[in-house]
Amino acid sequence: MATCPCRSIREHHNIKKYRHLKIESMYSDDRLILQLLSLLKQFNVRKIVVSPGSRHFSIIHSMEKDSFFQLYSVVDERSAAFFALGLIQKSNEPVAVACTSGTSTINYGSAVVEAFYQHLPLLLLTADRLPELLNQMEEQMFKQDDVFRNFVKFEGQLKEVKSGFDEWYCNRVINEGLLSLTSRGPGPVHLNIPIESHQGDTFSTAVLPKVRKITRTRADLEDFQWSQYAERLKGKRILVIWGQAAPMSEQLRKSLDDFCESYNCAILCDKTSNCRHGHAIDNAFVTLRNFSIDEGAKRLPDVVITVFANYIFNNNIKKYIRRFSPKCEHWSVAPSGDIIDPFHKLTDVFEMDEGFFFRKMAEPSHQGSTEYLTSLKAISQRIMEPEVPFSELYAVGQLVKSLPKGASLHIANSASARMANLFVTDESINAYCNRGVNGIDGCMSAAVGFAAAADEPVYLVIGDLTFFYDMNALWNRHLSKNLRILLLNNEGGAIMHLPLKESLADVLSKHISAGHQTSAKGWVESLGMKYNAVRNQEECDSAVEWLADTSQEGPMVLEVFTKKEVDIKILKKYFGSLNRETKFDKAKLKVSQKIGKYVNKNQ
User: How far, in Å, are 176, 264, 370, 551 from residue 261 at the CA level?
Assistant: First the structure.
């Protein structure tokens, strides 16, 4: 135990100790505790083995109020945890143990190891002090958030709830922990719960809120369960967000065709999605910035279904769905079944192959309305490609529009990825980008490796900093003759100037955007690569034709020198407005916030 048993029992039962508390037959007003109890009930975790102490007082007293919970009092935490294992073995359901902070937590260790190897769903609810106080001579405190690291399926470090963001975080972590108790094989789970003060809590919440529960579903559903999911989509505005993916297989295409025929959904994607489909809007990056006032509610989905990941238009779509769609559901479809909640709306996780999901969900009898798809298509189709003077964006557009059919396009991260998505490419061209972490590391190396295994021409669009950062990629005995590189050189990272004032340009160039006066010419030619350099529009047009000419034998590099000042102005025009809001946006935000507060209050 954390302290002497007699002392702990006295602290737990001596009412005079807590005479300053308003101990009523109601729940704690602490939003973290309300989240925890609500989800314990929704996941049917009713048996709680409690050891004495004071820091978890508000949790236990709130449970005492609710007849759903069956509380067992066992003084020694070592025995309490094994007592819980016995309850699990007999009841065949998850059981929780709850204790105060300090060494009481580590006393669960032996039972946790046993639960791990017996595959028993033991839930550890350990109270803790605030992490800021760690190693500051605080009583009954040690680093207990990861004490069972090698013997639990999931570790969840919760936090005090002081904002809506904190509440979303705790809701997600508790959901993930409770899902982990039984999914993919049962086993122990640890939730560490920081509580600043157990002495200042109040208990005036009469009804436990029904907070968001996330459901994880596997492929072995019964037909009637699939029908229930299909019914939830009936008559809804459905937006499928298609992330970065390999070119679509015929089997996946057939399943997607059937799904789209049933629900008339819209598919939002970008070049790296490699999704060619009649329902696809592949210029999502600019479409999301061109919703107008009169399209208002038509643009907002009722259900978002995400497949694959790492989409270039990520920040835009997150902003709109988080802020303007308070009642939107998010269904995540992925073989991993991971809890990924970018929109803060996640309700259902389908742990299965994407094609399998589309095939099982297809219900031809539904025939959903085409209104939503039509409204988004109308926005997408009226967007014109940029018409700009000579600049890095001009060079990217010229190349992307000139790519030979069947070529592969590699796009380096940051500005290059954004710019390439402003232009239309032939459907035969597949696109690739290192979007896993969205860093510039290895962008050229990946393209070089791809080209080494490819028969078709492989084009790489890359900025100067990314190129020089990875220049050793070209010092490679496997350099393919099919490799062609468009190098955009404006002597630094222009995109890093976007969020800051133009008056700071000189300061930014020195360190933030790494200003330089370097050319790739010497390095490239020393490696035996064909090299060309341009500094104006006429030279650029001619050189792009040279780079796109498949009769030329590579490897080839076209270095386009542009003025950073010009590039910054153009980038601000097309990308600097990503965070601006229309009058409709602001009005819609106020309404959505009111709705969100109402929904949260009445759940």
Answer: 34, 6, 10, 43
Residue 71 has what pLDDT? 98
Say yes or no: 375 and 414 in one domain.
no
Spell out where 491-603 has E strands: 530-534, 556-561
Helix or strand or coil: residue 281?
strand
- Asked if 300 and 324 touch (Cβ cutoff 8 Å), the reply is yes
**DSSP code, position 308:** S
CA dihedral 198, 202, 206, 210 (to 10 degrees): -50
Predicted confidence at residue 586, as pLDDT, reads: 46
Distance, CA of 518 to CA of 306 (rounded, Å): 42
Q: Does residue 344 share a domain with residue 328? A: yes
Domain containing 310: what range? 216-383
- Domain count along the chain: 3
The kind and range of the H/E element at 39 are: helix 31-42
Residues 426, 490 share a domain:
yes
Together in a domain, 310 and 422 = no
> CA-to-CA distance for 367 and 264, rounded, in angstroms?
7
Per-residue model confidence (pLDDT) at position 584: 38
Quick one: 356 and 397 in the same domain? no
Instruction: Tell me, yes or no, whether 220 and 208 share the same domain.
Output: no
32, 111, 263 from 79: Cα distances, Å: 28, 8, 55
Q: Distance between CA atoms of 588 and 592, rounded to whole angstroms?
A: 6
Mean pLDDT for the chain? 86
Q: Give burial (CB, 10 Å; 0-12/13-18/19+) of 127.
A: buried
**The pLDDT value given to residue 364:** 63
Examine residue 279 and state whether it is found in any structural domain, yes or no. yes
Which stretch of DSSP H or E encloses residue 34? helix 31-42
Indicate left, alpha or beta for 237 from its phi (over 0: left) and psi (-120 to 50: alpha). beta
Q: Rounded to an integer, what distance in angstroms lies between the CA atom of residue 490 and that of residue 283?
A: 26
Separation CA 478–CA 480 (nearest Å)? 6
Give pTM, 2 decimals: 0.87
Structural domain contains residue 600: no
Q: Where are the beta strands (DSSP E) in 38-113?
A: 47-50, 70-73, 95-99
pLDDT of residue 591: 44
Is residue 536 in a domain?
yes
- Within-domain flag for 396: yes
Domain at 534, CATH number = 3.40.50.970
Co-location of 260 and 201 in the same domain: no
Are 206 and 225 in a shared domain?
no
According to the model, what pLDDT value does residue 501 have?
Answer: 57
Ranges of residues in the chain whose predicted pLDDT is under 70: 1-25, 291-298, 312, 364-368, 493-516, 576-603
Q: What CA dihedral angle connects 63, 166, 313 and 371, to 10 degrees?
A: 50
Residue 332, φ and ψ in degrees, nearest 5: -105, 125
**Cα–Cα distance measured from residue 424 to residue 85, given in angstroms and rounded to the nearest whole number:** 60
